[in-house]
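Morning. Coffee machine broken again, so started the prediction first thing and wrote up yesterday's gels while waiting. Chain of 591 residues, entered below exactly as on the submission form.
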Amino acid sequence: MAAPKKGRGPAGGQSRPGRALVLILIAMVALTGGMFLSGHTTPRLGIDLAGGTSITLEAKTQPGKPNAINPTNMNTAVGIIERRVNGLGVSEAEVQTQGEKNIIVNIPKGTNSEQAREQVGTTAQLYFRPVLTVAASGPGEPTPSGSEKPSDGTTPSAEESAKAGDKDTGDKATGDKATSPGSPTASATTQGRAVTGALKKDPTPGASDTSKPKSSATPPVDPATAKLQAEFAKLDCTDPKQRAAAGKDAKPTDSIVACGSNTPGQYEKYVLGPAEVSGSDVSDAQGAIDQTTGEWIVSMEFTSGGAKKFKTITSRLSQQQPPMNQFAIVLDGEVVSAPSVRTALSANAQISGSFDQQSAEDLGNILSYGALPLTFEEASVTTVTAALGGEQLKAGLIAGAIGLALVVIYLVAYYRGLAFIALLSLLVSGILTYTIMALLGPAIGFALNLPAVCGAIVAIGITADSFIVYFERVRDEIREGRTLRPAIERAWPRARRTILVSDFVSFLAAAVLFVVTVGKVQGFAFTLGLTTLLDVVVVFLFTKPVMTLMGRTKFFSSGNSWSGLDPKRLGAKPPLRRSRRANGSTDPKEA
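Came back before lunch.
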């Protein structure tokens, strides 16, 4: 009698389910460890759950600038708006683009929502102000540049400023590059351009520039008041709060103190005179490459009225000693650049320095548009109190718990022992979802809002549906008369196809919803897509291997009535092998 042929190896890796289980266990440990090591052990909550104000700004096309809505301008606007929000003293505020023309501003609880709306929705204030005094800001500050003699960090008085201008007279030197600490050096050309050179620090801040003849011109601004002197002496630009508050809410006609930075982490503080040119006087500005030097520069063009103002101020500043030959470009009270002037300039000017492409384009956008590079309208504003946010979070958790409880009751009542496998799979899916959401908060700014919670609740049903599909396929095989272990393997290919098609449709719907919507609905779509992908991972790497292992136990393989796989309860046919023998045998009586 010939030995029976060996059948094919079982599909689905029946003999080695441990590999898949080890893989998913490593992923769970890695994600959980990363969550605790990062210090973000809870998902970041959205405004509707934590409380606060959410503002959606929509960019509008400007006349004559049909292509103004582009990623560069949108990112510039995000940076400016973020600087304004931080100026309110807000911590953990979130400003990000959404789609091609929307900016979402989420401001946590504890902030005046009306003030926030004014700050983020209006055009910023951009002014050109003459520099009176500049000094490095921080512990051990040097003597302010612009003082005739060492001082305690106050601005020069009117008499001192006059003396500084009346000592000597003579022709101005156009080729020297003396400059104040941290400010760009400058040189002039016969074309009437303001061209700054490389950044260069004076090793002795406050020392006078002996290489340049002094002028008899008087300072172009009102004398600094005692209050202004005190503010300058106390100002520490390394303190974010002081830096944000300096120069805020000042009138254009006021002299102010302000902060600026030419090098990351290093700050200068300024005393600035009244504004003489505003952002509206700039008709166009852009970053470009200087064809002569090959360096990135910022070119400016002024309106007819702005050109006259700019010529007047540069004519006067070109006769002053450093740093009073500088003008500061001030955006929302912050000095973004402070080039020095060597000669009177007309309608066209250039600013150069240690620019790269990004910094040149950013400064060009700021100058060209007077601050925000685009016009925005409020598409929606939502304000949620902390109490209401807590109530909504509680309601969402209760809804999730009720949904999970109903699924568990159904699984236990209908699938009995198989419910244990389903619950373990739901637990693994929950751990993966929670840890990934907690890590996505600091990584990409993901915030768990109420629609996202709804997406997670819907995902419970999607995940349970995958288990049910597989369980029913196994039951179908048992009804056909197969024993449990072959039934588990034969059911898997058909169940796998159904699960993949179902999850693909769900993921496609989530992706389309994420693309075509804005605001909180994207939170629902993102969570739904994420949990759908995790459903595939859990079913393939956990549910199927665990089912294979359980099929080897006596409780399940013997068809216990509480296993959920009892052949009698399922109405199974006689075993296929026995029925085949019956069909192939011959009755002796008939023979």
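Confidence is low (pLDDT under 50) at residues 1-14, 147-222, 578-591. Going to sketch it on the whiteboard this afternoon.
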